[in-house]
Design brief:
- The complex is a heterotrimer.
- Chain A is an alpha/beta fold.
- Chain A has twelve helices and twelve strands.
- In chain A, a hairpin with a 3-residue loop joins β11 and β12.
- Helix content of chain B is about 70%, strand content about 0%.
- Chain B is elongated, with a radius of gyration of 22 Å.
- A two-stranded antiparallel sheet of chain B has the order 1-2.
- In chain B, α1 crosses α3, α3 runs parallel beside α6 and α3 packs parallel to α7.
- Chain B has eleven helices and two strands.
- Chain C has ten helices and twelve strands.
- Chain C is α/β, with parallel strands linked by helices.
- Helix content of chain C is about 30%, strand content about 20%.
- Chain C is globular, with a radius of gyration of 20 Å.
- At the A-C interface, α8, α9, α10 and α11 of A face α6, α7, α9 and α10 of C.
């Protein structure tokens, strides 16, 4: 992938190269590549079925049994994850790379106290690391930590559970944090708190964050760079400000135009993308957006556009990029 | 179309053989199951005379055991099918109403279920037959009217779940009455779990029919039933093993197939595999 | 003033675990004029969905009046409810559970016409075909089952079903929340277009302020079972009066990094209290950045401030 030489790869905390995933013989993620530097937030954004969540699971090596990795390489610092034994991978999880989920209440063990669950991430009994765990609760903004440390998840609200998840994920100071729709189940005022917390902790601890989301508002809020995914491929990637200001891929442009904003004209027609996201069995050759794309032509249906550089350090997979 | 494994195919083959044997008993049996011949008492399997062949031997009255087992299969199938139908109808109606109307309807229905389930089923059946007298229709009635509680429980729990779904709310909004909502919107969506219960009950009914007939409270002589054949065979178990072994093996095989089919059905209607 | 929906001092309390009832809705009054769209926003547990369900008679209120098209449906008999529901219909959040998986969508859409004796046979089929076309589907889709459609298409079917009786009021409970971004735009455009064509009123319940602003004429903001503020759309978004409205608007991330990063907003602190045990005085005072001592004692009444009605001592 020469196209990715835009960035110095030796700086990356996590690098994904040409990752492909399949269910049986049906390809669902097709040769996607991205990397994240320490302290940087990369957003993988896309609609349901675009492959963003399975990509996160592939990085954690937590894929469901039906899904196989058919190609590509994932490297964490200098370690290649693809060749690690299951045991070595288990040691890595939590220490080097951690994950938080959409439903914090169901991701926590209902029978264990908050303190015990955080201590478990350090593989230590709570009694030995109590001070450290308490400090972590303070850092994730939980008030009254001396009481909360001995409470069970059902005694906490959804927002507080997500703070506990973040504490569990970050206490061992992993290099990389995967956040899979971390605020989707939360209310907007709580979402604002959690996003501010993630942004602050990533910067302070120099954690590389891969943020999986469908919400362009969340991306605009905290992501340094963004990779827009469509039907198992990266359509466009680059610095968030540039991608949002002048989207180069027609899908990105339409997606951004279809969002109601606090600044638009009420009741005006929103831009729509005709048709629906294709099912993996119907991907065919060529650009997967071709069937819905206003700029699509015969070449788009026949050939797959490679991810190539355009202005501002961006890459786009399109034969007819917007403004190009 | 999903592939079916060899094991599943074997279960289907077993069930099919049972159905075919029961329905076509008069075609497959070369001898009259009621015709006695005291000269041919307790002949072993494979006995042949000038006029007849007894592949599974004869019983204590010289009747063809194969014919009696085939006709016994028919009795089993009819009793099980009819009693399951009766209890399904009673149980599901009660469960649907309890789940939909709630309040005192559900209190009465569910207390009745608890009461029925706390009485030993076979004892209840024995008592009822003792009062009503034995015979085919009383047997169906007894089994049908004592075995509905499991359907009620499942139908009740499922109805509660489905009734809370938006499409049922929408049917209310459309102006549908309780009857239409329960029959068109709830019942089709709870049919899967009910069929699983019905299958396991079907196996139990075959066993119950055999047990009651074994005790002399079910199908009455001279008509054959696997239970009554074994009951007679019990007296000759040393001299004529075939009288207990063949109907026993049939009972075992059929009930096993029914139960395995029930497991397979349960996996198919499991909510995790629904909607695919 | 003519109204299609008039809710007066509505209270809906649910039995809570261990003693105190959950006061999901606690003294809310609001009205909707014919053809008007009222947005109802707030965070989870604020009671907005409870109001939606009470407004269509799917939930019996503890007290208060709910007058739909001239009929009070609070405590009404099933017969009265059935009549009123010809005037008010509902679109639900989840397009998957909104449709009976064992019923063709044509039967589902035509059911209300059939059971009310308004159409049958070929006439019903023709009407269902028209409805399908109105929501952007084809008449020959009528014989298909829900699982053969995508989420967005199913929501179109749900809308067609709700429109079959030509209701005067359409209640949308988080109708676009479960949909993907591009599909959400399609459904919002459809709702706006259908309303322009048929002039029905809408009660649009959503947690998404940008969506509410896009489709609504007036907006009511709820917090813990009570109204914080109710105002015409432009007034509410241009000059929110209630501190909670201000915080809610500030918390919506703008999908434009240039705008979003330039905003100086301090996230609201604290968690939403439980509706089983709401704070005394103003229910928002525990999280309010400008609360004074009076707010913890006196319950603020809803009063007129400019074009808005606000329940805040300091507005």
């Amino acid at each position: 992938m020469t196209a990715l030489s835009v960035r110095d790869l030796s700086l990356a905390a996590l690098a994904v190269r040409d990752l492909s995933l399949a269910i049986g013989r049906t390809n669902i993620v097709d040769a996607i590549s991205f990397d994240v530097a320490p302290g940087e937030v990369l957003a993988l954004v896309g609609e349901s079925g675009c492959g963003k969540s399975v990509t996160a699971q592939a990085i954690m090596r937590l894929l469901p049994a039906a899904i196989r990795q058919t190609g590509g390489e994932i490297t964490l610092g200098a370690t290649s994850l693809s060749n690690l034994s299951a045991r070595a991978m288990r040691d890595l999880r939590g220490r080097q790379i951690a994950m938080i989920f959409q439903e914090p209440q169901s991701a926590l063990d209902p029978l264990a106290t908050v303190g015990n669950q955080i201590a478990e991430a350090l593989r230590q009994p709570l009694a030995r690391v109590r001070a450290e765990v308490r400090q972590m609760l303070v850092e994730v903004g939980i008030s009254d930590p001396d009481r909360r440390i001995d409470q069970h998840p059902f005694e906490l609200s959804g927002g507080m559970c997500q703070r506990v998840m973040i504490a569990i994920a970050l206490i061992a100071r992993p290099a990389v944090l995967i956040a899979d729709e971390p605020t989707t189940a939360l209310d907007v005022t709580i979402q604002a708190q959690i996003l501010a917390l993630l942004r602050r902790l990533a910067a302070e601890r120099q954690t590389a964050v891969v943020l999986i989301t469908h919400d362009m508002g969340v991306v605009a809020d905290i992501a340094d760079r963004v990779a827009v995914m469509y039907a198992g491929r990266v359509a466009e990637t680059g610095p968030t400000a540039a991608v949002f200001a002048t989207p180069a891929h027609p899908y990105t442009a339409l997606l951004l135009a279809s969002i109601p904003r606090l600044s638009d004209v009420p009741k005006s027609a929103l831009a729509v993308i005709d048709g629906q996201v294709p099912q993996p069995a119907d991907y065919g050759t060529g650009c997967r957006f071709a069937g819905r794309c206003p700029r699509g032509d015969r070449r788009c249906v026949a050939e797959t556009p490679a991810l190539g550089p355009v202005a501002d350090g961006r890459l786009v997979a399109c034969f007819h990029p917007v403004g190009g | 179309m999903r592939r079916i494994s060899w094991g599943t195919a074997l279960i289907f083959a077993g069930l099919l053989a049972f159905m075919v044997a029961a329905v076509g008993a008069d075609v497959f049996a070369s001898n009259d199951p009621l015709r006695q011949s005291l000269l041919l008492r307790l002949r072993p399997p494979g006995t042949a005379t000038a006029t007849a062949y007894f592949p599974l031997g004869t019983d204590d009255l010289g009747r063809d055991l194969l014919a009696r087992i085939l006709y016994g299969a028919r009795a089993s199938l009819m009793v099980a099918a009819l009693s399951v139908s009766v209890s399904l109808l009673v149980g599901v109606t009660l469960g649907l109403m309890a789940g939909w109307f709630g309040g005192w309807v559900s209190i009465i229905a569910m207390r009745a279920v608890d009461t029925m389930l706390s009485i030993p089923a076979i004892l209840l059946a024995v008592l009822t037959v003792a009062v009503l007298g034995p015979g085919f229709f009383n047997l169906v009635l007894v089994l049908g009217l004592t075995r509905w509680p499991r359907y009620t429980r499942v139908a009740y729990a499922q109805t509660l779940q489905v009734a809370a779904l938006p499409y049922v709310r929408a049917a209310e909004m459309a102006g549908c009455g309780p009857g239409r909502i329960l029959l068109r919107h709830v019942l089709p969506n709870i049919a899967g779990p009910l069929m699983v219960v019905a299958t396991s009950e079907f196996g139990l009914m075959i066993l119950f029919e055999a047990s009651l007939s074994f005790l002399g409270l079910g199908i009455q002589p001279p008509y054959p039933s696997w239970g009554s054949i074994m009951s007679v065979g019990r007296q000759y178990v040393v001299r004529a093993w075939w009288l207990t072994a063949f109907p026993g093996a049939c009972l075992f095989g059929v009930v096993l197939c029914v139960n395995l089919f029930g497991d397979w059905l349960r996996d198919r209607v499991d909510p995790r595999s629904q909607g695919r | 003033m003519e109204t299609i929906l008039e809710i007066t001092d509505l209270r809906v309390h649910f039995p809570g675990r261990g003693g105190a009832p959950v006061r999901a809705v606690d003294g809310v009054s609001l009205h909707i004029a014919p053809g008007e769209t009222l947005g109802l926003v707030g965070e989870s547990g604020c009671g907005k969905s409870t109001i939606a369900n009470a407004a269509v008679g799917l939930l019996a209120p503890t007290s208060g009046r709910i007058v739909v098209a001239g009929t009070d449906i609070a405590g009404a008999s099933p017969r009265v409810l059935r009549e009123v529901r010809a005037q008010v219909q509902m679109v639900f959040q989840d397009p998957i559970t909104s449709l009976n998986p064992r019923m063709t969508i044509g039967t589902a859409i035509g059911e209300s016409l059939l059971v009310r004796g308004r159409a049958a046979g070929a006439a019903l089929r023709a009407r269902v075909g028209e409805l399908l076309q109105e929501v952007g589907l084809r008449p020959d889709h009528a014989d298909r089952y829900p699982h053969q459609f995508s989420g967005g298409q199913r929501q179109r079917v749900v809308i067609a079903r709700a429109l079959a009786l030509r209701p005067a009021l359409l209640v949308c409970d988080e109708a676009v929340s479960a949909l993907d971004v591009s599909v959400r735009a399609q459904i919002l455009n459809l709702l706006v277009a259908l309303q322009a064509r048929y002039g029905m009123a809408m009660l649009f319940v959503s947690h998404d302020l940008a969506v509410v602003r896009h489709v609504c004429d007036r907006v009511a903001v709820m917090y813990l079972g009570q109204l914080a503020e109710i105002a015409p759309r432009d007034a509410l978004f241009a000059a929110p009066r209630h501190p909670y409205t201000q915080a809610l608007i500030a918390a919506v991330p703008d999908p434009d990094p240039a705008v979003q990063r330039a905003r100086v907003s301090v996230p609201l602190v604290g968690e939403i209290p439980s509706p089983a045990n709401p704070p005394p005085g103003c229910r928002f005072h525990t999280r309010c950045p400008v609360a004074v001592s009076r707010c913890a004692v006196d319950v603020p009444a809803l009063r007129s401030v400019g074009a808005a009605m606000v329940a805040c001592h300091l507005a």
